[in-house]
Amino acid sequence: MKLRKLVPILIVAIFLVSAFSFMRTSFVKAESQVIHVPADYPTIQDAIDSAYPGTTILVAKGIYVEHLIISKSISVIGEDRDTTIIDGSDASIVISINADNVAIQNFTITKSVPRSFDTGISTDRAKEIFINNSKIINVYTGLSFYSSTNDVVAC
User: Fold this and answer.
1) What is the pLDDT of residues 70-79, one digit of tens each?
2) How far is the C-alpha of 93 from the C-alpha of 133, rounded, in Å?
3) Residues 103, 105, 108, CA angle at the centre, nearest 5°?
């Protein structure tokens, strides 16, 4: 009697297993990308432009004369705060951030030609910006946050 009750259950179970075995399942593996400057790209901005959201950009020590525009969720990490320098030269803002979840770490941010109203790092409607172990020198305004929330500055 017990065997008669189990047979329909086993038949249904075998049917379900065989039916699902024909279904194709696709898995997406999320991997974070790491880009090295200058080994992979000659400038930090080139690395930023090529990066996918979630990418970590590791910057070797040196002086990088450029203005950075960050519009995607990435991390930009210098090798050493005192020897990894971003020099904004003539730009009015050295680093412009207009994306959420951006990290800037281990840099000296400066201007070789400081002028009135220059800014080291400016955020525009960005949230969860993390600035760590960095120093900003030779600019009129070090940090500027416009409509930004949940930001952390730990210099």
Assistant:
1) 999 999 999 9
2) 19
3) 130
